[in-house]
Amino acid sequence: MSPFAGEGANLAMLDGARLGRAIDDHPGDSESALTAYEQELFPRSEASATDSAAGLEMMFGDNALEGLLDQFASHPHAEN
Question: Sorted alphabetically, which keywords does the UniProt record give (predicted)?
């Protein structure tokens, strides 16, 4: 995942904590722990990956300059 959602370190820490909890909740059954963990992980990470991909496209896509200027212009404090 590209870094454009700004959530990499936060997600890594959350993922580690949630995986640890899943392992604790399923002692001796790592497959069940991973299944429980992944049921939460995949939907959450999909949202972050989508945001990150949009940021990557905005910064490096074919219309990167226009997209970035539009984002700045749409900011509530932008001067017209």
Answer: FAD, Flavoprotein, Monooxygenase, Oxidoreductase
